[in-house]
Batch of 2 targets.
Target 1
Amino acid sequence: MMGTAPAADLPAFAATLQGFWKGEVLWHCPLAHFTTLKVGGPARAVIMPSRIPELALLIKGLRQHDIPWRIMGRGSNILVPDAGFPGVVIVMGQGLAAIRQVAEDASGINVEVEAGCGLARLVKWTMEQGLSGLEFAAGIPGSVGGTIAMNAGAFSGSVGEHIVAIGLMDDHGDYHIASRQHCRFSYRGLTIDHPDLPGPKQLGKGGGRCQEELLVLSGTFRFTRGVQHEVEARCRALNSKRKECQPHGVASAGSFFKNPAEAPAGRLIDEAGLKGARVGDALISSKHANFIVNAGAASASDIVELMHLVQETVWKRSGIRLEPEVDIWETDGRERH
Ligand SMILES: Cc1cc2nc3c(=O)[nH]c(=O)nc-3n(C[C@H](O)[C@H](O)[C@H](O)COP(=O)(O)OP(=O)(O)OC[C@H]3O[C@@H](n4cnc5c(N)ncnc54)[C@H](O)[C@@H]3O)c2cc1C
């Protein structure tokens, strides 16, 4: 099971998996199809569950058979290695994407949204309903689950500020509800400290190991009532601002590095003279220096090499260590468990 994901031992792996999973499977499936950077070798299996109880059975089976697994939303903040992933990648997609109003009072409403719902769809929905809160998120391409795990943010707003509760599944397939007091949102991260779960658990930790004992199944958001055309105007204005300063319509994972306390990462990279630097088809965008773009046929190792070049050059010039915001998967799935 360890190391890369060779196709040769797929039949034995498939027999084990099909012993407890009866739904659809994409075998030996290139993960480049599922990431916005358009890189990444094959996973032994990709599964897109469409019901929570079947997801629970899957998680239980994976644990029982000691099969490594990882969770993915829209793959817009992940770098998968060229060797792929030696286990099961669970993609939270359209099958688990409901939006449900769960409470309402004079000032606003609470809405429960399943993890597979696209953030763009949720923003559009709030816009149509005249609900304010997520205007900053117009143009962020993730799923609701990935967005909560990463505490995605922009223009001084972040998703965590609007969350009142999160539906979770642990790696035994058991459900939990984390209310606001159990959630510690940080810069591009979330830690759950829940009395029924052992120790604080960190989700969506960009640039390092991501502990995946916890899956986000849903988030309950609090939105305030606004005026429909004003909410819409704010969304459009912020999305236009994003398009003015960021590359658009190219393969990327958004901002590649976290902004250190000293200065925005993009400015540090620009000042280091790295706009346009490239390794193979991986290049530093000339529009926004914190974007690494796949200009066509970049490999994951080209991107990692370019990342190291940026880190070393910025370190030598400014003494500041840039940390990736993107979650860089390692080839060995087990290290993360
Ligand atoms: C063009 C572009 C612009 C972007 N702009 C921004 C921006 O302005 N602000 C910002 O913050 N980000 C931005 N991003 C990055 C990215 O869109 C966000 O981080 C997004 O929230 C990730 O969601 P996802 O579904 O794609 O997550 P993925 O990339 O699929 O996953 C990210 C991490 O979350 C984990 N994860 C995913 N789903 C779940 C789940 N259900 N439960 C538990 N863990 C999960 C994954 O294992 C991984 O560790 C941008 C990306 C692109 C390509």
Note: Residues 36, 70-78, 92, 115, 140-143, 145-147, 149-150, 152-154, 203-204, 210, 215-216, 252-254, 327 surround flavin-adenine dinucleotide (CB under 6 Å).
Target 2
Amino acid sequence: MYDFDRVIDRSGTNAYKFDLRERYFGTNDVLPLWVADMDFAAPAAVQKAIVDRARHEVYGYTIRKEEFTNAIVNWCGTQHQWPINADWIEYSPGVVPALAFSILAFTNKGDGVIINTPVYPPFYSVIADNGRRVIKNSLINRDGRYEIDFNLLEEQASQETTKVFLLCSPHNPVGRVWTLDELQKIHEICSRHQVLVLADEIHSDLALFDHQHIPFASLHNEAAMNSIVFMAPSKTFNIAGFSTSYVVTANEKLLKAYRDTQNRLQLHMGHLFSGVALTSAYNEGRDWLKALKSYLEANILSLEAYLAKNLPELQFYRPEATYLTWIDFRKLGMTQKELKSFLVDKAKVGLNDGMSFGQEGRGFMRLNVASPRKVIEQALVQISEALR
Ligand SMILES: Cc1ncc(COP(=O)(O)O)c(C=O)c1O
């Protein structure tokens, strides 16, 4: 019913993943498995909603009505067992912009913001580019499964100038779905030291292999009052080209401060198609998402089996969420420069450089499995042939 095996030609669509290869890899001759979007068609219901709206020939200033917030309330309740109110929600032009607004709203210049590294690169820039201090809480790699260093977190949170913990949940690139126990520990430490939790949960709908994502603010009222959660259907339904993200907090003061900053920057209007895309995806995309997750799990299992059989030097920890896999190439004994050149020039595959996520990513690469299975298989064959 849903054909994720179909290879869709994205050329001529200004796709970042395809059309920026020359700039990022120095050549167009690589299979692109980098940028975090998918090579699959969006759900038919979303395509139809967009086309239907596009048929109306006036594209003026557009508001988002109750159907927008209702779709979100319903989604959070049914997908994440998180009962929220419509008036806890604010639209945002993107999760990364919303993180930046929040850093501006809740910290001052020179304040410290904790992040779990290695991590999605904008986590560094939203802090540093705004004159705040990045406090690196380096994740502990236990045989490929990453854990938070809670002793270090306690020490970092206790510093007078530490104001925010920017949590990536689920975590990109290490693929962890934080457990109830881990989230509870984060909450205890942060609330003890009056550190606000900003939880980027953009990958929350893509918890795989029976892992269950827990929205940080759903822990209990105290956590809800000391956090803002950032979500979007963009990763889930492959609609990142639209601005479909939003923030949720039960804390009126936090919501007002967030809104004030977004409004001050005049970025509250949003895009005509964002409401259409979000509403149709959340209201009609449930079955599609179920099928997508099965397909992604099968891609990950096939990658895992291939590596075990043909490339045992590459270490791989099965992600608990996301279509992003974090692969350890360190046993090949190459420098990062040699590894990059090996993958681009010899294997002709375009992966994300592990070091773009932080120093901990030395010897690692991130491979995006959200492509038709035969594309992933082709990339793996190219890597193993280049190595032999
Ligand atoms: C953790 C995380 N946050 C945010 C984003 C991007 O959010 P947006 O496109 O809404 O700014 C990504 C995209 O890869 C991501 O992985």
Note: Residues 286-310 form the longest helix (25 residues).
